[in-house]
Structures are given as structure tokens and as C-alpha cells.
Amino acid sequence: MFTVRLAGLTVEIDNRHNFVYEQCADYLCADATPLFRVAVSTREAEEYLRSCGRPLTLPEAESHLLYRRICERVPAYGVFLLHASVVEMEGRGYAFSARRGVGKSTHTALWQSLFNGYGGARYTATVINGDKPLIRRAPDGRFWAYGTPWCGKEGLQVNRK
Known about the structure:
Elements: E1 2-6, E2 9-14, H1 18-23, E3 36-39, H2 42-51, H3 58-73, E4 79-81, E5 84-89, E6 92-97, H4 104-115, E7 126-129, E8 134-137, E9 143-146
Parallel strand pairs: 2-3
Antiparallel strand pairs: 1-2, 4-8, 5-6, 5-7, 8-9
Helix pairs in contact: 2-3
């Protein structure tokens, strides 16, 4: 069991496999009381493995289900999951949302290759999250995209907003 900070929210994760802990290493925090706790039983993870239609390991299935549990709880705190790749450039976020396999990651890579170094070192396109960022509405009405450890097969993410 460990605690992470996601989109400014502190969450306790009751994991069975070390895979999830290692995946969340950049988001660990021990200095705050969690708002809620999520857990997945081995039986639930095994059922998910049989029904998901993709080759996964049991630890990966646990990770998917734990994030699903987190995403079910965060709307109560003004946060939601957006299936998208989010790139930050010059303080602004750009979200590319589409179904799996359409090319979000390809589009993101094109932004990085086009803009990184453009105009000297002026522009940098940073991938906040390549697949499953959390979005939070600030009190001033602006929306912020947050990196998460759940970021797609390319593993593109940073722990920032």
C-alpha cells in the first residue's frame, strides 16, 4: 500500500503487485492524508484479464483496474479522465483526443519533431500525458491537464500540470 498525488489529490493505492508501485514512482507522496483509497482483488484482476480482449499480465490488469477505480472517484473533486494525448507548449495545453489506434501518439510525436527547437530553443513541446491525463477545473474556470502514470504504451508522461 502506498500514497500518490494525482491532479493535486492524494490517493492511497492498495496494490497486490509491485508493478503498480514502480509505475507510480514519480507520483509517490507520504506527506498528506489520502482523500480516498482504491483496491482491486486478485479475482477482479483475473476476470478483467479474461474479458479485456488484449494480452496483459495480472499486474497490468491490476494497474488498469486501480486507475479505473481512481477515475470513478475523482469527479467528486472536480477532476475527470480524458482519453487524449496532451502536449504543453509555452504554458498552454493541447489535447488530441481519439479512439485507440487512431494516431494520438503519432500526432504528438509530430508536434515534438516540428516544434522542439523551432525558433532556436524558444519552443518545446512537452508531453504531459500520452494517453490518460486527468483534467481539473481551477477556481478561476481554467482547465488544467495533469500527467499520470497511466500514459499508454509509449510511456510518455511527466508529473506536472
